[in-house]
């Protein structure tokens, strides 16, 4: 229900503290304190409250405004723009003052006190949201309207699983946290820029990926949401990608458009370390793959005809063609100097995943052009046919990149992604060999989503026990009691790791069903 409740029991009373971010009123948070008298007590009951909140921030320039309907008001803007010369977003906040004490009068059985916080980009919006919250609170409908909004969402997005309780709880928890990170349906104008690996930006500087958007969204989170909630998948694609196409063209030294490894509100590259933005170019193919999955799942041509989707797909196709170089010796196109998903190996040539996802981007661009009746250059098809996708014909497996030595340590799922989600053509023998070799070579302390992809692969080959073994590894990343995921099984990395949840959901929704 998206509600956190904390119950304190004493001899004289029971006190319940309830907190929630309202699912329908997207700018509103609420908390309440309810004191209920125990039997045989009649005296006044006083609870002391302690609030650590102060209206100050090292990131914001804030000014105090006049109170509004009993709420305190501050407003301001960020001190530093996302990119040099860019805008400094504004913030407006209203909150109900928290008194030092609350008293349940003598003879009264129960009382509930409501406190609201509204945060928005404009004074008009923050006041409207706060007023809506007050009106619902006055009729006793504030929390129930929140519950109703969640109930409507669960009606279309829930998954029923016949299995042990821990598995069902993990499934429900993953869905809840991902759905919590999305704007509700109908919330037009809400500033949504995508989902970061750890959700909302939090922690100290440099922690939890700064709230930036990576391939984690398109590759790991989106597929399951697309299956259950295609409107949200479209929002993830359209809001975070299509709007930034013009600046993507401008900053790329290649033709077409190259997506940033890390993006935020502007769509520009905001990765704090240059090597990743320069070399992890598979992100452009990851984005197009997400658009492809959306198109084949929904047949929604409006996104491509009128909302910038075709411009994006075609620009990435142009980029891949310009990024490839012809090898006379091998009679194939190469992509050189990249970092694959396995970030232990920078500046390699012909990353098998990067080249395969580039090939898929080009094939989809040509197929989509046919549906839209748009002419495209012949070089798109030629580059797709002739790009090198490394395959060791003798050992019958896919080397991760040119020069990879079997058994060399790998950070995370990489070459095994050719089978799923790329569905690159290969024999069952090659698929099995990829799984065998890279399962043994993958760092056991790697990120959580890795084992889900091995589970999907083993399920393809009807190796249920081996798939179960890989899926069980995911539970090392789940912390109790609220099913919070950590990036790495030793507790390090991003918290709450939505990327790992997305991989886990795919193992169940795509691995167990075989759906593609």
TrEMBL record:
It comes from Dryobates pubescens (Downy woodpecker). One of its GO terms (biological process) is carbohydrate metabolic process. GO terms for molecular function: protein-glucosylgalactosylhydroxylysine glucosidase activity. Keywords: Glycosidase, Hydrolase. It is an enzyme of class 3 (hydrolase). The keyword Hydrolase applies. Belongs to the glycosyl hydrolase 65 family. Its EC number is 3.2.1.107. GO terms for cellular component: cytosol. It catalyses: (5R)-5-O-[alpha-D-glucosyl-(1->2)-beta-D-galactosyl]-5-hydroxy-L-lysyl-[collagen] + H2O = (5R)-5-O-(beta-D-galactosyl)-5-hydroxy-L-lysyl-[collagen] + D-glucose. It holds the Pfam family Glyco_hydro_65m. This is Protein-glucosylgalactosylhydroxylysine glucosidase. Residues 202-405 form the Glycoside hydrolase family 65 central catalytic domain. Catalyzes the hydrolysis of glucose from the disaccharide unit linked to hydroxylysine residues of collagen and collagen-like proteins.
